[in-house]
Design goal:
The complex is a heterodimer of chains A (about 400) and B (about 325). Chain A has about 400 residues and is of the alpha/beta class. Chain A contains 11 helices and 15 strands. The N and C termini of chain A lie far apart (about 55 Å). In chain B, the strands form 7 sheets. In chain B, strands 3-2-1-28 form a 4-stranded antiparallel beta sheet, with no helix packed on it. Chain B has a 4-stranded antiparallel beta sheet with strand order 4-5-6-7, with no helix packed on it. In chain B, strands 8-9-10-11 form a 4-stranded antiparallel beta sheet, with no helix packed on it. In chain B, strand 6 (about 75-80) and strand 7 form a beta hairpin. Classes of the chains: A alpha/beta (about 400), B mainly beta (about 325).
């Protein structure tokens, strides 16, 4: 009799468990050197990315309250000499198959290539590398952070809409800077701009804080920018080593655009349209600072999982992953249009903000850049150009 | 000839009689309410109100206008005789939209930042209850029979049905992404909900919350992503529904019985909320990006005038 009772109890509880399933999402970050901000107005950030994921989880949880789904976030780190492969294997052992990657491209590729990762979905919220969307693409990876090509195309469309077509390209010394410069060159060719001069930034970074810092910059930058006339100075400085110093110091009075000045970005604290104010204030309340593009990408990754779970009424990671890639998925990302994933390379299609230092200037795609499908696909690698073979 | 003159006179007289209405428009970026004379279709005045006015509605006796001023966390009370703000009501934080219950006494207010619907008792001038809903509550509607109140939450993408008496959540229904507006039909039997990003309107049975229809919109030459559904106006007799299509710059006219889209009207840019005249012959639209109001003559099926108002008109209400 006791056994029968136990059996009944199990039968009764089984559907309840399925209904009130817990969806676990892992965020995997890597140890990074702390960066001192260039401007005294900025504060060092220690929780970039993860803070966005936490807010995404709390947004998911509110919806889950009504659907009987609950969400948890586990946070894992990869040390300086650590192996992301080990973290992935450990997650697999725990049955966690939904992962938000806050890793650079090389570590993400290692993580995604582990056999245990085949059954997982990794959402890249940090690495803008176009290779990850082309020759190095993986079937188990989606991307919420915009690629460098998307940013460059968004900026190029805006510059062309202003008829600022002669560009002076200044590139920093990191490999990311060189890739971003490649993306600017590609965008110039696509949209009809002309790169009239190119230069590399070769000075040592970080001397502006010394008492004579401004004097040195005041001689170096005019010398560097003494070049043929141009409409804009396009800067590629992802590590934020010198781009901030350019404005107001160039030989010719030309605006600075690119990674500094007028920037193309997936998110900016200046975004306030389309309900963005609500997202910004939720983020500030929870993180105590402003929301960056990396925070936004991590938020979007966690929210995408939540949205797919709620819409597909599923707690099964495979079901969630397939819904994310399907035609019915859209994420409300506070940028005025629904955001979904491109079938050919797993990139989230999304509007790109053209942001000034204090206010939003525009949003790309610009009016008039047409597409037979979605105009959002005028930014980045389109289906026919894609080098991704899955 | 005489017959013609008589006919013209008759039409003119009937227009005079029918169109003595006044339209009030909340201008989100100007912190004002524009007044439009329904006879001349001109802007005849501007009322300064609090910061970021959006939701706008009339009192039961139509002598008072309520305006939700989100950045000031209150609802301004405008005396329509003097056309001045005459005090304010508490609303909870960041009120965006509200609806007046048929009892004339309670306002149900969506608090965008707090995931709450606040219930405001107007004579007592205080919040008497709060109902927890999803993230970023926005759309508010009430059944004409007064039995239930509906709310949408933009980020949670849900329709919340609240019992107007017990103030308990009766149901939470997953709807299209970023639901903006919910309206209950004149017979209190249907709930219509617009989804901004999906660009659809869903119709539910108010009693069972079973879906009855899902209406999609196509506008030639406008990309799918920009065909979004926002403001809804149902005719009281249940024959028609009008839906503002946001950045598609169109208003769709729908047969509310068959759920078929009959036609679309080209109006101003990023059309947001819309409002019917009391006689049902005109539809006024608030066009956020072109800062004007379009007037649609529904009998003759044409846009008859565009009226410049303040910056970023958001909501509007028509007083007889």
């Amino acid at each position: 009799m006791k056994i029968v009772l136990v059996l009944i109890a199990i039968f009764l509880s089984a559907p309840a468990l399925a209904e009130e399933g817990v969806i676990t999402i892992a965020v995997v970050s890597q140890e990074r050197d702390p960066v001192e901000p260039v401007s005294p107005l900025d504060r060092p950030i220690r929780d970039q990315g993860i803070a966005g994921a936490r807010l995404g989880l709390s947004d998911n949880a509110t919806t889950g309250r009504f659907t009987g789904q609950s969400f948890t976030l586990v946070e894992r780190g990869v040390g300086k000499d650590g192996h992301p492969e080990d973290v992935v294997r450990e997650l697999a052992r725990q049955g966690i198959r939904l992962v938000v990657s806050d890793l650079d491209a090389s570590l993400l590729l290692k993580a995604a290539s582990v056999p245990e990762a085949r059954e997982m979905l990794l959402i890249n919220a940090r690495a803008p590398d176009d290779a990850l969307r082309n020759e190095s693409c993986r079937a188990n990876v989606l991307h919420t952070i915009p690629s460098r090509a998307m940013l460059a195309d968004a900026l190029a469309q805006y510059l062309m809409s202003r008829r600022w077509r002669r560009w002076f390209l200044v590139t920093g010394g990191t490999s990311g800077d060189r890739l971003q410069a490649d993306a600017f060159r590609r965008a110039a060719a696509r949209f009809g701009a002309e790169i009239v001069v190119e230069k590399e930034w070769t000075f040592k970074p970080g001397h502006a804080r010394t008492d004579t810092g401004h004097v040195a910059l005041q001689t170096e930058i005019p010398a560097l920018t003494q070049v043929a006339d141009h409409d804009v100075l396009v800067v590629a400085d992802e590590a934020n080593e010198f781009g901030e110093f350019l404005s107001g110091r160039t030989a010719r009075p030309r605006p600075v655009v690119g990674t500094h000045g007028l920037v193309a970005t997936g998110w900016s604290p200046v975004a306030e349209q389309w309900g963005a104010t609500q997202l910004q204030s939720r983020f500030e309340k929870s993180a105590g600072r402003r929301m960056s593009a990396v925070d936004y990408a991590a938020w979007a990754a966690v929210r995408a999982i939540g949205e797919a779970a709620v819409r597909s009424r599923s707690i099964d990671p495979a079901g969630i992953a397939s819904f994310l890639r399907g035609p019915d998925f859209i994420l409300s990302g506070f940028k005025g249009q629904g955001q979904s994933f491109r079938a050919w390379d797993g990139q989230m299609r999304q509007p790109i903000l053209i942001a000034g230092p204090r206010l939003l200037v525009s949003v790309s795609p610009q009016t008039g850049y047409l597409h037979r499908g979605s105009e959002l696909d005028t930014l980045g690698t389109d289906r026919e150009e894609s080098g991704c073979k899955l | 000839m005489q017959a013609l003159i008589v006919a013209v006179l008759a039409i003119a007289l009937s227009l005079q009689a029918a169109l003595a209405e006044t339209v009030y428009v909340s201008n989100e970026q100007d912190n004002t309410v524009s007044i439009i004379d329904g006879t001349t279709l001109d802007q005849t005045g501007t009322i300064p109100v609090g910061r970021r006015p959006r939701g706008i509605g009339l009192s039961a006796d139509r002598q008072t206008l309520y305006v939700a001023v989100g950045d000031d966390n209150r609802i301004d009370v405008v005396d329509l005789k003097s056309r001045r703000v005459d005090g304010s009501l508490p609303s909870g934080e960041d009120p965006e939209f509200f609806v007046l219950h048929p009892d004339g006494r309670r306002l149900f207010v969506a608090n965008e930042n707090d995931n709450l619907v606040s219930v405001l008792d107007i004579p007592e001038r205080r919040i008497v209850a709060e109902v927890q809903v999803g993230v970023e509550p926005e759309g508010m509607g009430v059944s004409p029979d007064g039995r239930f109140v509906v709310n949408t939450s933009e980020t949670t993408s849900m329709l919340h049905v609240i019992d107007a008496q017990t103030l308990e959540l009766v149901d939470n229904v997953l709807v299209g992404t970023r639901p903006r507006v919910a309206q209950v039909s004149g017979d209190s039997r249907q709930i219509w909900v617009s989804s901004e990003l999906r660009g659809t309107v869903e119709v539910f049975d108010a009693g069972t919350r079973e879906p009855l229809a899902r209406i999609g919109f196509e506008v030639p030459g406008v990309p799918r992503e920009l065909v979004q559904a926002v403001g809804i106006q149902l005719t009281p007799d249940g024959s028609r529904a009008y839906v503002a299509l946001g950045p598609a710059n169109r208003v769709a006219e729908i047969d509310a019985k068959t759920f078929k889209v009959l036609r679309t009207y080209l109006v101003g840019q990023r059309v947001w909320h819309i409002a019917l005249s009391p006689d049902g012959k005109r539809l006024y639209t608030a066009n956020g990006n072109s800062s004007d109001v379009s007037v649609i003559d529904l009998d003759n099926r044409e846009v008859v005038k565009t009226i410049g108002v303040g910056r970023s008109p958001w909501g509007l209400v028509v007083a007889p």
